């Protein structure tokens, strides 16, 4: 799959801008704040219908403008595919593929597989469990539409159960039968989601470890562990056992929305004991494993966005990463960097064609 060209209208700092891309490597270089990451984010938008960086949709519209349009022309399986994402203030976002608007955005997810590696990934290590669950969910969703639909349904039931708990507390009342209905639904969707997360992680962890080994030259031992209450317990029994706690808290304290991943280096949490370079290597290995996994599932080479990844990495590690991407197994690559010369020197070592875009 190749993104042939991209055009932006009123997207973040760009009024109107077009690119015709190289099929292999595209380097977007320029000073801080010039809009390099915004170009990558526009490409991300075309795959996921939203920004990787800014969850407030309207903030992606250029200041003092009324709308944005991001237009991408792709070839996939030898067919041309045109995807347009647009947003007008006060209206709903529209995603069109070949002129036809999607009813549900979730149907588009996975159509243009993409992996982004960015400094913002640090949130996966430093922030709470939500970001790590989002990561697992986004990898599985790109190759399994049913997973995403079960997840959406689970979250809806969860919100209803929480609202009911709040209502009971405010009105000093309780009805076990209504809670039971929600428990059954949460158990149905939650068990399926748990099984898929478990199966996914069993396949994913070895790939991740081998990616880390390649980046670090095999000198460090890392671990990724799936933490879930559901390993030892049936969700329905758990929900029943915790009902008094949930009533006191006014929300549901157990379920797959509490799952987490532990990231360790040499048997200690990487958040506390990993150096910045080790943390960055860990995140890159995680994302490259995501790439491998999506590719194996979909049979398509995802687009790979490398946002500002050379910072904080020593030459050895940069060399290892470049060696990895200098491989037929990778598809199209987009790299952003502040140092045009550094990027060009690194990219010259790769035996693939490339294009430099100076903003
Ligand atoms: N809605 C918007 N309207 C106008 N400008 C915006 C909007 N959103 C972001 N910007 C501008 O985009 C610029 C940031 O762009 P971006 O993050 O792509 O920079 P960058 O080239 O990647 O920089 P760095 O090298 O520092 O990472 C900032 O100048 C910011 O003010």
TrEMBL record:
Under the heading Pfam families, the entry gives:
SMC_N
Where does this polypeptide localize? Answer: Cytoplasm
Q: Which InterPro entries match?
A: DNA-binding_RecF (IPR001238), DNA-binding_RecF_CS (IPR018078), P-loop_NTPase (IPR027417), RecF/RecN/SMC_N (IPR003395), RecF_2 (IPR042174)
**Where does the record place the RecF/RecN/SMC N-terminal domain?**
3-346
> Which residues does ATP bind?
30-37
Domain of life, per UniProt, equals Bacteria
Which UniProt keywords are present, listed alphabetically?
ATP-binding, Cytoplasm, DNA damage, DNA repair, DNA replication, DNA-binding, Nucleotide-binding, SOS response
Functional summary from the UniProt entry: The RecF protein is involved in DNA metabolism; it is required for DNA replication and normal SOS inducibility. RecF binds preferentially to single-stranded, linear DNA. It also seems to bind ATP.
Q: What family name appears in the similarity comment?
A: Belongs to the RecF family.
This protein is called: DNA replication and repair protein RecF
Gene name linked to the record: recF
């Amino acid at each position: 799959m190749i993104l042939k060209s991209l055009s932006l209208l009123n997207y973040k700092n760009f009024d109107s801008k077009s690119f015709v891309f190289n099929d292999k490597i595209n380097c977007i270089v320029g000073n801080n704040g010039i809009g390099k990451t915004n170009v990558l984010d526009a490409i991300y938008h075309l795959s996921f219908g939203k920004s990787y960086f800014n969850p407030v949709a309207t903030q992606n519209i250029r200041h003092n403008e009324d709308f944005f349009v991001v237009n991408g022309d792709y070839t996939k399986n030898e067919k041309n595919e045109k995807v347009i994402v647009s947003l007008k203030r006060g209206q709903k976002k529209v995603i069109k593929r070949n002129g036809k608007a999607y009813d549900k955005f979730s149907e588009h997810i996975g159509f243009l597989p993409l992996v982004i590696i960015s400094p913002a990934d640090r949130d996966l290590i430093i922030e709470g469990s939500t970001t790590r669950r989002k990561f697992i969910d986004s990898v599985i969703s790109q190759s399994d539409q049913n997973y995403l639909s079960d997840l959406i349904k689970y979250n809806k039931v969860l919100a209803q159960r929480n609202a009911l708990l709040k209502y009971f507390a405010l009105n000093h009342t309780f009805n076990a039968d209504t809670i039971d209905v929600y428990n059954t639904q949460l158990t149905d969707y939650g068990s399926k989601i748990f099984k898929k997360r478990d199966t996914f992680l069993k396949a994913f962890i070895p790939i991740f470890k081998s990616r880390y080994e390649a980046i670090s030259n095999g000198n460090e031992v890392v671990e990724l562990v799936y933490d879930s209450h559901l390993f030892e317990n049936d969700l329905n029994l758990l929900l029943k056992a915790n009902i008094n706690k949930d009533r006191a808290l006014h929300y549901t304290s157990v379920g797959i929305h509490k799952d987490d991943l532990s990231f360790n280096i040499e048997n200690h949490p990487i958040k506390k004991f990993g150096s910045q370079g080790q943390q960055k290597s860990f995140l890159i290995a995680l994302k490259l494993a995501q790439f491998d996994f999506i590719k194996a599932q979909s049979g398509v080479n995802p687009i790979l966005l490398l946002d500002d990844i050379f910072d904080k990495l020593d030459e050895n590690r940069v060399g290892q990463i470049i060696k990895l991407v200098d491989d037929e197994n990778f598809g199209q690559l987009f790299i952003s960097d502040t140092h045009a010369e550094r990027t060009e020197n690194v990219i010259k070592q790769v035996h693939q064609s490339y294009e430099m875009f100076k903003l």
